[in-house]
Amino acid sequence: MMIDDIRSFREKLKKGFVLGPFSKTSDPALIEIMGYAGFDFVIIDLEHGPVSVETSQNLIRAAQIGGLLPIVRVKEGNLSVIKEVLDVGAGGVQVPQVRNADEAKTTVQAVRFAPRGMRGVCRFVRAANYSAKDQFRYFSEANEAILIVQVEGKEALEGLDGILSVEGIDVVFIGPYDLSQSLGFPGRVDHPEVVKRMREINERCLERGVVVGTFVDTPEDAGRWIDAGVRYISYSVDMGIFYSGCSEIVRRVRKS
Description:
The protein is α/β, with parallel strands linked by helices and about 260 residues long.
């Protein structure tokens, strides 16, 4: 990942909001198209999709061609994958189910090289141009990778202040679906209690100057959360977007 792309992304977060979908495809062409469509980033999903670290290499390449920042969501509790996706060029990682300060610290340690962390060191990887890049420049620039931690349950609500005290986190992402399940309303992301808790997390993060992200799947919901100060907007999922587009075409043609 080119360091200029990461720095540009950080500037966008400071000035306004960024927009990008989750992706469960294994086809680089779809990722590339997302970039041409104008999205800022894509979340390549290893947690809820068929994508592997090996597959993600070409998806990351496609994102770079299309002008997207490639973020990779790793599986819950599998921090060893963090260094693997960063090694193949991810511009950032998104880590699910971070519940407290200890887990947040462990996550930061996995993402950053010393002295900011303890990420495993290897310079013969794609992210370092397979050793063509000066190793010390690589280690320094690699520490600028974006780190997003997902807060999405009762335990995380209770541990939020501790999470926010940990240095090295760029975005706190509110996961509405897992949060709804944790609160006893699985899938009902518009339930008043779920929305209330999401607003509470958002306000507490903003008070600490921490960038907030969340998932939406309508333009109206995106607008509401942007108005509330959310800057990292994950808009739906590529498979759902494709299905909606296809079904709308079928509906309109059959109606005409």
